[in-house]
Amino acid sequence: MVIEDMARKRFTRRRFVGAAGTTATLGITGCLGGGGGGGDTIRYLSDRGDSSDVIDEIIAEFEGEYDYTVDVTYTSRGTSTDEELQQMLAAGNPPDIVFDTSTDAYRYQRNGNLAPVSDAVQGTGLPDPVNVDGESYFAPTIVEPLMGWYRNDIYEEKPTTFETWRSEAQRVTEEEDDIDGYIVQSGQTNNAATATTQYLWQNDVEIYGGPSDNIEVTIDQGDNRNRAVETYSWLQEMSEYSPTGSGWGWGDGTQALQQENAAGLMSVGGLPILTIRENRPDLVENLSPTGFPIPEGGQQDKWWAYMEGHVVRNDGDATEGAQEFARFFSESDRFLDFVLSAPLFQWPPTEEGLNSDAVQENEVLAEHQDAVDLIRDNWDAFTTVLETGDGGVPNIVAADAYGQQMFGQSAEQMLVGGRSPEETVDWIAEELRGLQEE
Amino acid sequence: MSAVSTLQGRLAEFDEKRLLLLATFVPFTLFFVLVWGVPIGYALGMSLFSDPTGAAEFAAFANYAGVLTSELFSTALFNSVVYALSSTILSLVLGLGLALVVNREITGGNALRTMMIFPYLLPTLVVIFMWTFLLDPNVGAVNQFLLDYGLVQEPLAFFSSTQWAMPAVVVASVWKYGSFAFFILLARLQAIDPNLYERARVEGASTWQAFRDITVPHLRGAILIIILVRGIWMFNKFDIIYLATRGGPLDATTTLPIMVYELAFRGSPNFGGATALAGIMFMLLAAVAVVYFWVFEPEQEVAN
């Protein structure tokens, strides 16, 4: 009896421990084995949540024609695609297809993370900025050129040159109450990085040279150095007529314009006007688009335009399906609807698209014909920061510099850190060369 | 008593008491292991690999060496210590002062006590929005006040200048988290026997002497706990700093948690380095906690 009781009790303990162990094992298995998905589910990461209606319709058409389902993750506000992607990778759930910039696409390709999307690009008339050994790794869907906006009721003339921008910004700051003439952004933001790079381009500074496999940093050499110092000096002077734009992203500049704290800024496409149309419609007619300042007698020959589109990763579960989806998206009848879901901000990736009926007939674009004309007149000058090797070949140093917003940091080194323009040029040159060594 | 009956007795005791203990202990242990142990172990494991989320290669302690020898590490560590110490001590001083005021029977004491909870309840995003607006160089009320009274000639860019960014973040943090110390200290103050003060007064003690010899000893345990807990929280604080300055300008407010985030998600992601830095932070805080418990023996204070 005692033996039986002992056996029963031991059995009870064993059962207890066994049950606990089983539960733990199942729990751990459940935690570690979660996620994933079959090869027929395409995981799609996009930061275009504002265009989700059109995207969802394209996905529905795709799912109707192919034996795939598309599971979209829209990045949350304030989270970049890069950040979201890294979180998904860390969780062991990489997306199959990502909406990203051509610059990031080139970095991913360099790291060996991409599968080609040649069928979606080659022979379609689309640009092919990330072509490596004959294979295309990026399917463009939109371009987003940088663009300036200024208050036409406050500026006495449309500023075009470095000097007219400076004199008008100074006059506005000194004569107008509670409003600065211009916004100079600095810091580790895309806004500051793109604007600073474009200022240097405007003054004909060749930041880099050489072929893709041997990029050389030339910003601090010969005449380039003189022009770069001149550009940073101009920026330093303009900062006197600007609110403190340290750490400002796109939205901060727009907000300053909207709140009438500043009378001019450089941003991306029609992003400011789209926001202001919503919040301050009374201001819209007082804002005019413009390009970046050019030197006296110079002309606009290199204009930063983001190019965004699809990249297919090679470490997902549905790589082939993702390649099909990239091609389907570019060929979809709804493609231009997607582009025009944010008119003025997003533009078609081809001149043919720009001249299409859909663009011509878009109501928002028709209300801002001056912005459309600016885009049309400068179409041939648009380029991405990636295409800055000799002859426009891909430049991995520029891609990495953009990824770390080095040029925004250079402006911060000068405007906040107190470096002179000369020291700033030395600093950025050293940092860029440091990127080459990594 | 035979061996069998002894064993029987022990097993009976096991069934009645220890099984209950085991039944409560095992789920907690499992929970601890799954929710804390596994992620910590996973993260520390990642810290030993280069590119742990991609083509992972065992790198031993190379990530630790890389982080410790980076230029930013010493800056971020210094900023972390400055931020954690200053925000904790100021929160403590503010909380103590207000708790002493509210502990007296003054007009509006109850209202003040109720109001003190609001900063703690407000979302961090709202707090930062409010403080960036207040301290804005163009439209901020603080700059307007300083200019109107001639205290400054030019508006101060609080969150955008290297000398003012850290103080501005600390002020916003103290405003939000000061009530934590306030409520703990107020509860402790209200537990002090009023007869002690009465007796001290009868024996001729001044207000200062009563504060020094009665109030402070009673608050010592609570103060030590606040310093430890709040200090650790502030050392690990990420959201309020990132929302206010993103670690800038020029890394003036880059603390170790911001650096972890920058390593993990910005530019060229370095998860190995980020997890290594998180491991270093964990070890630093563990070392501080051990020294703290060894020197101050706060458990004795609480027990007393």
TrEMBL record, chain B:
Its main location: membrane. It is a multi-pass membrane protein. Keywords: Cell membrane, Membrane, Sugar transport, Transmembrane, Transmembrane helix, Transport. GO terms for biological process: transmembrane transport. Residues 77-292 form the ABC transmembrane type-1 domain. The chain crosses the membrane at residues 20-44, 81-102, 114-134, 164-189, 210-233, 271-295. Gene3D superfamilies: MetI-like (1.10.3720.10). It is found in: Cell membrane. The keyword Transport applies. One of its GO terms (cellular component) is plasma membrane. It holds the Pfam family BPD_transp_1. PANTHER family: BLL4140 PROTEIN. Belongs to the binding-protein-dependent transport system permease family. This is Multiple sugar transport system permease protein. It comes from Halolamina salifodinae. The lineage of its organism: Archaea, Methanobacteriati, Methanobacteriota, Stenosarchaea group, Halobacteria.
